[in-house]
Design goal:
The chain is α+β, with helices and mostly antiparallel strands. The chain is built from four helices and eight strands. The model has no long low-confidence stretch (mean pLDDT about 90).
Length: about 140
């Protein structure tokens, strides 16, 4: 799968790297370069790369994955920061295409996704899809920008 990532380090094309846990990967080049531009205002070392990854990613818009990943507690509530949410609120949180990223920053949710075997999760942030890595994953750099 083609993704885009930003780094504060120069990485040669063809290099195989390990992407760390909890790193944001971008689906769109424009979003990655916009973020890198913002980072360059803080630090002159901000580079954008296209990379290939071959890892299982959880897509919370796929119903079969939802049913397999999210486990309710004995009261029928799913993990959330406020102690638990109903199935309807879970679906609303997962499918919020404006911004679902905050929902996925809650450790018990990430643990359920990680425990099923996914290396990352697709999230929405400002109407755009991104991946949050849940464990270190391998990537091969194929282009720099």
């Amino acid at each position: 799968m083609l993704i885009y990532l930003n780094s504060g380090h120069k990485i040669p094309v063809g290099a195989k790297i390990e992407v760390p846990n909890m790193m944001v990967l971008f689906q769109e080049l424009t979003q990655a370069t916009e973020e890198a531009h913002l980072d360059k205002k803080k630090d002159s070392n901000a580079y954008t790369y296209a990379a290939i990854i071959d890892e299982p990613l959880h897509d919370p818009l796929v119903q079969r994955q939802i049913n397999a990943v999210y486990i309710p507690n004995p009261l029928g509530l799913f993990p959330a920061e406020n102690g638990g949410i109903t199935y309807d609120k879970l679906i609303t949180s997962l499918s919020n295409i404006r911004s679902s990223i905050d929902f996925f920053l809650y450790d018990p949710i990430l643990d359920q996704i990680r425990d099923i075997g996914f290396s990352g999760v697709w999230v929405f942030d400002n109407d755009r899809r991104q991946v949050i890595t849940l464990k270190p994953i391998n990537a091969q750099i194929i282009k720099n920008y």
